[in-house]
């Protein structure tokens, strides 16, 4: 299937590793020119070089913290008129809600709610004027089924989800869609960090903890960033113009409900 987006421009946040990188690679594979944003310049440049070499599209790299106004200004200066926006940043740390202070909540809201909203605000009217736009927010399965130790994530991402539900119905008549992709457990650095903490707490080895955890998923494995990226690229394709305001769960069957 031709996704019909070759030559479009995408701004992909949190793109040097993991799920964001998976999205950037899949879009570049469809001929989309990509601007990659991440904090660590070396990792980012290495990812940019690999994607450039593999796909031949134009790849810009902006090393910045997307959760700051300066970072967003730099990202938008490098890609002022994106046709596709992938919102993504690191997730908040786990913990006990009794220990979280106002600053912890503000950091989580900045990263996982207000930054995507600011980037949508900065780009959506241009998409509407050009009559094409695809916005995908990487959120979490925690929006559908809260994870107790990730209260900061449950709360901040649910705020974004509620906001998106409101505006996604207003943009779709202009061929601009806004959807959320909800990852379950994907094999990325973030997952290894979370499971590393669980391994340390239990005194078990990392391999043992990872194997046991993956066996609890109906798919009996973790997801990989390439399959996440493929779904993202489809949501950004010309074929997905009738789909907006949706929360698409990618979790290997882990969520047990009928809907
Ligand atoms: P990862 O740690 O593998 O990669 C994160 C990427 O985002 C890196 O490129 C990093 O440089 C970049 N990044 C982080 N904070 C940034 C910032 N402030 N500014 C710019 N770039 C930033 O993580 P991942 O597993 O790909 O997760 C991506 C998102 O999905 C996170 O919010 C995570 O909480 C969420 N998520 C992941 C999983 C999973 O299983 N991997 C599950 C549920 C939710």
TrEMBL record:
CDD domains: BKR_like_SDR_like. InterPro entries: NAD(P)-bd_dom_sf, SDR, SDR_fam. Transmembrane segments: none annotated. SUPFAM superfamilies: NAD(P)-binding Rossmann-fold domains. Pfam families: adh_short_C2 (PF13561). Belongs to the short-chain dehydrogenases/reductases (SDR) family. This is SDR family oxidoreductase. It comes from Noviherbaspirillum saxi.
């Amino acid at each position: 299937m031709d996704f019909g987006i070759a030559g479009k421009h995408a701004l992909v946040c949190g793109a040097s590793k993991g799920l964001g990188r998976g999205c950037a690679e899949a879009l570049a594979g469809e001929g989309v020119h990509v601007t990659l944003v991440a904090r660590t310049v070396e990792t980012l440049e290495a990812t940019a070089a690999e994607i450039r070499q593999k796909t031949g599209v134009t790849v810009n790299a902006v090393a910045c913290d997307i959760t700051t106004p300066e970072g967003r200004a730099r990202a938008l200066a490098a890609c002022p008129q994106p046709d596709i926006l992938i919102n993504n940043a690191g997730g908040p740390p786990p913990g006990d809600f009794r220990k979280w202070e106002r600053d912890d909540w503000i950091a989580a809201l900045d990263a996982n709610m207000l930054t995507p909203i600011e980037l949508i605000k900065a780009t959506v009217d241009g998409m509407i004027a050009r009559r094409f736009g695809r916005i995908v927010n990487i959120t979490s399965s925690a929006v559908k089924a809260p994870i107790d130790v990730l209260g900061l994530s449950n709360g901040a991402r649910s705020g974004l989800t509620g906001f998106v539900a409101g505006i996604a119905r207003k943009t779709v008549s202009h061929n601009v869609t806004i959807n959320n992709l909800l990852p379950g457990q994907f094999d990325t650095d973030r997952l290894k960090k979370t499971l590393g903490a669980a391994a340390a707490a239990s005194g078990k080895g990392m391999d043992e903890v990872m194997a046991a955890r993956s066996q609890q998923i109906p798919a009996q494995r973790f997801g990989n960033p390439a399959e996440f990226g493929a779904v993202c690229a489809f949501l950004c394709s010309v074929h997905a113009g009738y789909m907006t305001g949706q929360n698409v769960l990618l979790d290997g069957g882990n969520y047990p409900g009928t809907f």
